[in-house]
Amino acid sequence: KAVLTTKVMGQEIYYYPQIGSTNNEAKKLAAGGCPEGTIVVAETQNTGRGRLARGWFSPYGKGIWMSVVLRPPFSPLEASKCTLMAAVAVNRVIRQVAGVYSGIKWPNDILFQGRKLVGILTEMSAEMDAINYVVIGMGINVNIEEREFPGEIAATATSLLAVSGREIDRRMFLAAILKELETAYHLVQTGGFTSILDDWRSQSITLGKNVDVIGPDHRYSGLAIDIDNEGALLVKTAQGVRKVLAGDVSIRPV
Ligand code: BTN
């Protein structure tokens, strides 16, 4: 029932009932020379990681905790293209297959009614001006019951089951994501990144909103007006337009 129709994505699959973090394992495999498209997927993670040194709740058998290894032929400055394309690809599948009208919060969270359905953690290794590998890690909250979320997460996270009332076959869902990812990646490599950007814009729930930008040592607010080709968010403030890089900031609606 779950048929993989991809040529690159998921041609090698490392499956673990339990692991520390699929991103860590994927980075090891990537450093060891595994082929592009290799994925690591686990039923549960003991030390799942999120952005900004946060953890990631990864209950057994309830989500898709997955990392994919890419070797994009472009400069490290363009690596965020991979993240943006991943967000667009996953959001498409959620809308089409799960029928949930989710949106993308910059840089790469997928939310439904303000709560997180998917988190994406991209990590890169580069030397000089060439990318060695990019690992895209995705945490997709699929069949988690509302009451299973620990207290501190319950306010900010949700799952496809909680919002749609339906259980989803994770293997079918993963196959659909890999297919969509492959299509998007092909587009990015053949000069079609602007169409990915357009999709990102149309699926974004950040653009057009007033946001607080919160960094380690600064904080300001403004209107999110666009993203640029490098995936930076452009925020219009009283002092002018500021370019926000995903690195170590978070944003939230004002
Ligand atoms: C975030 O929203 O902060 C990003 C969360 C990314 C979680 C996924 S789960 C699979 C992969 N392995 C990890 O340790 N993290 C990512």
Which superfamily, in CATH terms, is the homologous superfamily of the largest domain?
Bira Bifunctional Protein, Domain 2
Global geometry = globular
At CATH level 3, the topology of the largest domain is BirA Bifunctional Protein, domain 2
Structural class: alpha+beta
What is the level 1 CATH name of the largest domain? Alpha Beta
> Any low-confidence stretches, pLDDT <50, length ≥5?
none
Estimate the helix proportion, in percent. Answer: 25-40%
Bound molecule types: biotin
- Please give the order of strands in the largest beta sheet: 1-2-3-7-6-5-4
Q: Estimate nothing, just give the exact number of structural domains.
A: 2
Mean pLDDT, all residues: 94
Series of H and E elements? EHEEHEEEEHHHHEEEEE
Note the total helix count.
6
Q: Kindly, what is the distance between the CA atoms of the first and last residues, rounded to a whole number of angstroms?
A: 45 Å
| Number of E-type strands | 12
Strand count, sense and barrel status of the largest sheet are:
7 strands, mixed
Instruction: Indicate the proportion of strand residues.
Output: 25-35%
Using only CA atoms, what is the Rg?
A: 17 Å
What secondary-structure arrangement, pairings included, does this model have?
Elements: E1 13-19, H1 22-31, E2 39-45, E3 63-70, H2 80-98, E4 103-105, E5 109-112, E6 115-127, E7 130-141, H3 151-154, H4 160-164, H5 170-189, H6 193-203, E8 210-214, E9 219-227, E10 233-237, E11 240-244, E12 250-253
Parallel strand pairs: 1-2
Antiparallel strand pairs: 2-3, 3-7, 4-5, 5-6, 6-7, 8-9, 8-12, 9-10, 10-11
Bound molecules: biotin.
Domain BPL/LPL catalytic: 1-189
GO cellular component, one term: cytoplasm
Function: Acts both as a biotin--[acetyl-CoA-carboxylase] ligase and a repressor.
